[in-house]
């Protein structure tokens, strides 16, 4: 199924003119936006940490407007949170660790994501100093205290309750934990199906905590096609085929994640958690790149080694001249163009991609309720 293949009813889309507006006194502002997770959504928090999981050197950011300089995003340009912010009519959220995040900038929201982290605390231990999920949630609580000092506790609570939240985590629990080395500690502890069950149960605890902290509209993305990224093609794939063990991990994880989210919603009694099947959207252009204007979905635009899949992008890496033609920017991360395709599916996708509803519908319904 092609991306952009479905549309919300006209009656609902007509309400999108007032998407995301929160009225505060006589002023209106775009709804706040909060981001949690890993390198797919990190806007630069790791720039402020002593870690190797960084994207603060060229050619990262080569297409990032207007500076065309690295920002800490693991992308040639905008990442998924940036593009969602644009859909909200808002500026991009700043990294929570940024010294610029103060005063009225706090009312836009914040990005707590940190490259290298996973659902589990032992995921990404090789990166040492990263913001693990429990710490991201502590920062979210700290953020709310800071905002209360600006607009008062009641208004701060409303800002958080009416905000949109995105969380993207889980892929590293396979790539940088279970499959990091042969016979890893986790792979000795759990067969893959039991490990997935364990991850889902731990993820549910994190999401419940997010709800307890006031989140009421949460987009939860699944993992991408883990075995098809250039890194895995280079290290585990055979003859350009996706690595089967990583693909099996994603195939087990994503459906169980979606079911867990639906169960959480039933328990809460409302549609708080939205399953964003970004893996399916990503698989669309991995399996048929030409249909979406890509020359390849196997070779990264920037990197080295087979498929440009070894290590991160550096100033000495091979660099493609036209990033629009590549589904992958580096060994692990989508290009900006691929991110745009994923966000369009988040906005307008059918239930196969967005369950129980897409973001256009969410924003329209929330605008009516405001």
TrEMBL record:
InterPro entries: GDSL, GDSL_Est/Lipase, SGNH_hydro_sf, SGNH_plant_lipase-like. Residues 1-28 form the signal peptide. SUPFAM superfamilies: SGNH hydrolase. One of its GO terms (molecular function) is hydrolase activity, acting on ester bonds. Transmembrane segments: none annotated. The keyword Signal applies. Keywords: Hydrolase, Lipid degradation, Lipid metabolism, Signal. Belongs to the 'GDSL' lipolytic enzyme family. This is GDSL esterase/lipase At5g33370.
């Amino acid at each position: 199924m092609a991306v952009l293949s479905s549309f919300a009813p006209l009656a609902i889309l007509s309400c999108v003119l007032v998407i995301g507006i929160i009225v505060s006194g006589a002023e209106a502002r775009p709804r706040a936006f909060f981001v949690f997770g890993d390198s797919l959504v990190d806007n630069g928090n790791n720039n402020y940490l002593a870690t190797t999981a960084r994207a603060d050197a060229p050619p990262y950011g080569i297409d990032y407007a207007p500076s065309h300089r690295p920002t800490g995003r693991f992308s040639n340009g905008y990442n998924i949170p940036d593009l969602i912010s644009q859909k909200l009519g808002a500026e991009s959220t700043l990294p929570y660790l940024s010294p610029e995040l103060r005063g009225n900038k706090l009312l836009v929201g914040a990005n707590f994501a940190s490259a290298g982290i996973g659902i589990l605390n032992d995921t990404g231990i090789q990166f040492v100093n990263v913001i693990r999920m429990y710490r991201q949630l502590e920062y979210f609580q700290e953020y709310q205290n800071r905002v209360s000092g600006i607009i008062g506790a009641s208004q701060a609570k409303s800002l958080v309750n009416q905000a949109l939240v995105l969380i993207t985590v889980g892929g590293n629990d396979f790539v940088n934990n279970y499959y990091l080395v042969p016979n890893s500690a986790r792979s000795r502890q759990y067969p893959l199906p039991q490990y997935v069950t364990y991850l889902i149960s731990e993820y549910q605890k994190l999401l419940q905590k997010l709800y307890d902290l006031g989140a009421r509209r949460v987009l939860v993305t699944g993992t991408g096609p883990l075995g098809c990224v250039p890194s895995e093609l280079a290290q585990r794939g055979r003859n350009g085929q996706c690595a089967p063990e990583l693909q099996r991990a994603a195939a087990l994880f994503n459906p169980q994640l979606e079911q867990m989210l639906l169960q959480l919603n039933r328990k809460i009694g409302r549609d708080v958690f939205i399953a964003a099947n970004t893996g399916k959207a990503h698989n669309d252009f991995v399996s048929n790149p030409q249909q979406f204007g890509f020359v390849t979905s196997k070779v990264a635009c920037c990197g080295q080694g087979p498929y440009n899949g070894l290590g991160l992008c550096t100033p000495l890496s091979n660099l493609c001249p036209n990033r629009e033609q590549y589904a992958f920017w580096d060994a692990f991360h989508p290009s900006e163009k691929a991110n745009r395709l994923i966000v369009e599916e988040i906005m307008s996708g059918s239930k196969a991609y967005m369950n129980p509803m897409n973001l256009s519908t969410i924003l329209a319904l929330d605008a009516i309720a405001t």
